[in-house]
Specification:
The protein is of the alpha/beta class. The protein has a single domain (2-222), classed as 3-Layer(aba) Sandwich (Rossmann fold). It has helices spanning 9-30, 45-51, 80-86, 107-119, 147-151, 175-179, 191-200; strands spanning 2-5, 34-38, 61-65, 67-69, 96-98, 126-129, 158-161, 170-173, 183-189, 217-222. Strand 9 (183-189), helix 7 and strand 10 form a beta-alpha-beta unit. The longest helix has 22 residues, at 9-30. It is globular and about 40 Å long.
Length: 226
Amino acid sequence: MILVEYPTAAELFAAVAKRMVRDLQTSLDSSATASLAVPGGSTPGPMFEKLQSADLAWDRITVMLGDERWVPLDSPRSNTGLIKAKLLQGKAAAAKYQPLYNGAETASLGAVQLAKDVDAILPLSVAVLGMGADMHTASIFPGAPERAAAQAPDAPAVVSMTPGDGLEDRVTLSARALLSAENIHVVILGDDKKAALAQAQSSPISQAPIAQFLPKAHVHWAPKES
């Protein structure tokens, strides 16, 4: 693990966006296509806004989320709207988007076809991950019944997940799919996340799913803005 600390979140987002551009360009220099998996939520929005103006061959890049709630793509609960509003704009509007929702009745049914769709895109060029204070990443939650299946070496590329919050089921890229990435960046903000990171480094992956990715990751940390 390589840990890089920044004075502010703004500097972190600018630096990570620049690093993602470099990683994607390196992939495009050696391959016809590249792929990028990113987290949902509002936190990475500033990073996406910087990335969308990058001078890349976006028509050769496929973008997908690392995880998604099992709701229609036009639902306000879906992270797809955020990705389209914050990342797939400007030059990046030319990118291909691989949704993690296909209208199946349940997340577990939908994940079967999505796994085939995503496997056709692997390996990833870049995966950007967040981390919760409980040390989960993507939607690989330490207490979820599907956790072990999602972390198995032979896991499908996409698995369904039952979160502990009682809300919608989700689908997530499996550890195998995320670890296929040539470059893994973990982005965390705040002292609580820094403490969780320290705990994860000495915890089994069953209790700290993020730990499975740390040996290969660049971790970027900045204080949380008040």
